[in-house]
Amino acid sequence: MLINISTKERIWEHEFKGLFPNTSFPETISEDIYLSFGYAVLNYPPQPGITNLQKIIDSDVEQDSNGKWNVVWEVVDKDYLETQATITSFVNECISLTNQRLDSFAQSRGYDNIVTACSYVNSTIPSYSSEGQYCLSIRDQTWKTLYPILDDIKNGTVSLPPDCQDVISQLPNPEWTE
Fold first, then answer.
1. Are residues 162 and 118 in the same domain?
2. Average predicted confidence (pLDDT) for the chain
3. Could you tell me the CA-to-CA distances from 18 to 15, 106, 140 in Å, in that order?
4. Rounded to the nearest 5°, which phi and psi values hold at 82?
5. Domain ends where: 37, 52, 77?
6. Domain boundaries, position 26
7. Looking at the structure, do residues 86 and 162 belong to the same domain, yes or no?
8. Among candidate residues 54, 77, 100, the one where a domain is terminated
9. 89-131: pLDDT as tens digits
10. DSSP secondary structure of 66-119
11. 128-155 tens-digit pLDDT
12. d(C-alpha 96, C-alpha 159), whole Å
């Protein structure tokens, strides 16, 4: 990307030649040539770190002490709708990952998913009944733990964690005893 030094208008490199149709340019245009036409290469420095409820905007450009033109990044809070969308997406992801976690646990014993495993609670085969009871218990404990955490996040009582693994690590750990 290039910047017009006087107007700070940005253009793509391929647009530059079109601005000067009667000029012959080399295949690779140097920074000196751009400068002779009042343009400079615009550099994009690394973006600053942000939280899930912030965003980065490219707010300005500035010339550094070496004469290079750089984008100036600004960290701003997301607006209300963006924040709600981010939180909703986070909550849905945590619920999905929790379901996957419970299903994977049940599948480790050959059940289709946690629901199927729980359905064996009344089985006449003692080992199936025991496994069904344990799956029912771990499923209930998991959701009983998860939903208040997610409610606190939705209500702003606690900060939005960086990722769902921070939430899932707070859930009961399902383990088969035998």
1. yes
2. 94
3. 5, 63, 66
4. -65, -40
5. 77
6. 2-77
7. yes
8. 77
9. 999 999 999 999 999 999 999 999 999 999 999 999 999 999 9
10. TS-EEEEEEEEE--HHHHHHHHHHHHHHHHHHHHHHHHHHHHTTT-SSHHHHHG
11. 999 999 999 999 999 999 999 999 999 9
12. 20
